[in-house]
Amino acid sequence: METNLSSSAPAEVETECLVVIVLDRTENDRSEKDRSETDRTKNASGEKAKPEVSIETSDNAIHEAARDVIATGEVTGKIFESTLLHNPSKLKAKRLLLVGGGKAKNFAAFELRKMAGTAVRTLKPKGIRSLTFVAPENGINAEVAVKAIVEGAFVGNFDPDTYKSDRKDQKIDSVTIIARGDQAGLQRTLDEARIIGESQNFTRELVNEPSNRMTPTLLAEHARKMAQEVGLKCEVYGADEIKELKMGAFWSVAQGSDEPPALIVLRYEPPGAPDKPVLGLVGKGVTFDTGGISIKPADGMEKMKYDMAGGATMIGVMRAIALLKPNLKVTAIVCATENMPSGKAQKPGDVQIAMSGKSIEIINTDAEGRLVLADGLYYARQLGCTHLVDAATLTGACVVALGYVNAGVFANDDPMYERFGKALEKAGEKMWRLPLDEEYKESIRSNIADIVNSGGRWGGAITAAMFLKEFAEDTPWIHLDIAGTAWMEDNKAWIAKGPSGIAVRSLVEFARDFGERF
Ligand code: BES
Ligand code: MN
Ligand code: ZN
User: Fold this and answer.
1) pLDDT for the residue numbered 358
2) Measured in angstroms, how far is the CA atom of residue 266 from the centroid of ligand 2?
3) Does the annotation mark 296 as catalytic?
4) How confident is the model at residue 47 (pLDDT cuts 50, 70, 90)?
């Protein structure tokens, strides 16, 4: 998708569709109890009260063009409401789309990003291929607005229907943003946002592929190809090297599959970058999770193709980092394997020795993500990473705790978490911190080995994180459990059902911030 910046008057722009924001400015200061139903919906003369809305542009021609439809009262400004007008009077645009942004007092970049996605998803099935978005002039800083609109438009433009014979493959080809202010600065912001949006969609494409088309070997090939295109170092190690490195935890999962595993290492080492920090990004790349011998029920098992989302996240993040060029070293490690039952598969009760030397009693072969990450985290530290972040579709328990709205975040270091919190804000992603108290460690004690790989049912997201903490040790570390958020369960106005690309934007912002001041 092409992205352009413009400082023209909206009325003068020739475009298939001009998009403007409408906000709900109805005052709600009286409590519900104070007013009767009639009072709330009718005015003094007994007519239905018109919603109070504002169109977020100073362009009079747009206000003029929208006047009649606003006068009908059908535009409420409700979030994601869209109203499409044809041949709007006095505008050069062929159409005018009014997109609701919700209550004016709550309106921020977070909503704007989704509104851009909504505009794209409203227009593309209508055969419209280019649109022009009028950035709001009040309330949101122009740079923040341009960034949110571009990122949101990329999110909205993705559809997962790759293998449909009648694939519509409808995409918006071009988005222009009308924004006021320093055009050179805004152009830079736009270019950066575009890299981030494209990288998020790159991750989503990897996650969307079924496991027969995204084996560990193929995931590694995608990573290698991307690395070549953007100038990253890429090394891929197979079964022999994984065994040579004594990655007993990673191998214990891989041993059950006929499909060879891949240890993918991507390095970004810009000339002149300081020796420290080195950010390590570790991703769970389970290209299919059957559960192994502790096999999962058939119902819904097809979804376990997205169990490599953490790994795909890190590959997408590395793409963005290579193009945005922050001044710090970043190493990504993706542990890619299938988790299969077979005559070679590990069994409950088996004891495995991780690369760090810790012994692990396998209670449940379906708790495989933490096994591959244990060696991934330890290896990252061996490669010199001073700070670690991992991302993984790790536990169903995290979905029970936080649903599909927030990803789970865990951290063994408060300052690092604080900085990550700022990145979340900037990226407009929702995650919620969960605890790592020492008391939880009791749940992963083993009779025969150092730890077990399953802490049982209660606090399952936490005990999984406690397991990982054993391998991060005293290295500052953040763990993202994206089991509930890496896959959208339903279509939304602003994003398609399917892979979400969660955490890509936040991790890119986090790395950029880390490169700026450490
Ligand atoms: N990949 C799953 C977690 C998962 C569940 C991801 C739902 C996405 C949606 C993980 O490998 C797993 O199976 N975890 C087990 C752990 C248990 C056996 C301790 C779980 O959550 O049930
Ligand atoms: Mn599993
Ligand atoms: Zn899994």
Assistant:
1) 98
2) 25
3) yes
4) low
Mean pLDDT of the chain: 96
Rg (CA), the chain: 25
Task: Map 253-320 to HEC letters.
Answer: HHCCCCCCCEEEEEEECCCCCCCCCEEEEEEEEEEEECCCCCCCCCCCHHHHHHHHHHHHHHHHHHHH
Helix intervals (H) in 342-395: 369-382
User: Annotated catalytic residue: which of 114, 194, 370, 381?
Assistant: 370
The count of other CB atoms within 10 Å of the CB of residue 41 is: 11
pLDDT at 30: 47
**SS (HEC) of 28-47:** CCCCHHHCCHHHHHECCCCC
Closest ligand to Cα 464: 1
Q: What is the Å distance from ligand 1's center to 363 Cα? A: 14
Task: Calculate how far, in angstroms, residue 395's C-alpha sits from the geometric centre of ligand 1.
Answer: 4
The token duo for 404 is 């599909």
Tens digit of pLDDT for each residue in 251-277? 999 999 999 999 999 999 999 999 999
When pLDDT is averaged across residues 228-250 and rounded to a whole number, the result is 98
pLDDT at 49: 76
What number of CA atoms fall less than 13 Å from residue 450's CA on the CB side?
A: 11
- Cα–ligand 1 centroid distance for 280 (angstroms): 24
Mutate to test the pocket of ligand 1, among 305, 364, 366, 480 (most ligand atoms within 8 A of CB): 366
The best mutation among 363, 394, 398, 488 to test binding of ligand 1, ranked by most ligand atoms within 8 Å of the C-beta, falls on 394
Give 38's pLDDT tier (boundaries 50, 70, 90): very low
b or e along 70-88 (b: 16 or more beta carbons within 10 Å of the residue's beta carbon)? Answer: beeeebbbebbbbbbbeeb
Q: Is 370 a catalytic residue?
A: yes
Alpha-carbon gap, residue 309 to 200, rounded angstroms: 11
Ligand 1 atom closest to Cα of 397? 21
- H or E, element range at 240: helix 239-244
Task: Give the ligand whose atoms come closest to the C-alpha of residue 483.
Answer: 1
pLDDT at 34 over 80: no
Tokens of 320: 């963005």
Give me the half-sphere count of Cα atoms (radius 13 Å) on the Cβ side of residue 271. 1
Residue 215 has pLDDT above 90, yes or no: yes
Sorted by where each starts, the structural domains of the chain and their CATH numbers stand as: 2-181 (3.40.220.10), 221-517 (3.40.630.10)
Pocket of ligand 1 (CB under 6 A): 289, 307, 364, 366-369, 393-397, 399, 454, 460, 483
User: What is the residue with the minimal CA distance to atom 17 of ligand 1?
Assistant: 367
Find the 459 Cα to ligand 2 centroid distance in Å. 16
Which two structure tokens, joined as six digits, stand for 392? 């993984």
Residue 5 backbone phi and psi in degrees, to 5: -115, 145
Is the separation of the CB atoms in 308 and 287 below 8 Å?
yes
**Active-site residue, selected from the candidate residues 129, 246, 296, 430:** 296
Ligand nearest to the CA of 444: 1
